[in-house]
Design a protein that fits this description.
Blueprint lengths: L2 H17 L12 E3 L5 E5 L4 E5 L13 H24 L3 E11 L1 H4 L10 E12 L3 H14 L1 H8 L15
Antiparallel strand pairs: 1-2, 2-3, 4-5
């Protein structure tokens, strides 16, 4: 897809959202099934059923997906798609790889040390690009990718998150 094709696809969406800001508010959902036979959760994706379980550092055997890995994979996917969209819009030829790394202290997750954080302490996102773009173009590409990457911005801005448990009669 080139810049004109991308603009042609996005132009009516942008116009609609400018005229009706409420049309741009969309709720994304993910659903999972708790596995009664083990410590796992099956998550429906667009194309498959993925089963998440314990990371080997918490007692898993490594045969199931780790939700921490899935978080980093979502970041890589979103950042990669966003970078490609921005590069297309700017008319830049870009290829290469995207990598996310995150540091965890499993003492927190396992309750070994109450002072140890539960969750990622640091996350690093790296683009290794092959491009003929000059330094200013790469800086613009990076700035816009950071600005428009939904997963990155969600992690950086840490939105309000709530948890609700429904049982028996409390289900809608």
């Amino acid at each position: 897809m080139d810049a004109s094709a991308l603009k042609e696809i996005q132009a009516p969406l942008k116009a609609r959202y400018q005229q009706d800001p409420g049309a741009a508010l969309i709720t994304l959902r993910a659903d999972g099934e708790l596995d009664g036979s083990g410590i796992a959760c099956r998550v429906r994706t667009a194309t498959a059923l993925a089963e998440a379980g314990l990371h080997p550092a918490t007692g898993g055997d490594g045969t199931q997906l780790c939700s921490g890995d899935m978080l980093l994979e979502a970041l890589v996917a979103c950042a990669g798609v966003t970078l490609r969209a921005v590069a297309t819009a700017l008319g830049l030829e870009v290829s290469g790889t995207v990598r996310a790394e995150g540091d965890l202290d499993f003492r927190g997750t396992l309750g070994v040390d109450k002072e140890a954080p539960v969750g990622f302490r640091d996350i690093r996102l790296t683009f290794d690009l092959d491009t003929t773009a000059d330094a200013d173009q790469v800086a613009t590409l990076t700035k816009l990718t950071e600005r428009y990457c939904v997963v990155l911005q969600t992690l950086v801005s840490s939105p309000a998150t709530s948890v609700r448990v429904q049982t028996g009669e409390s289900r809608p």
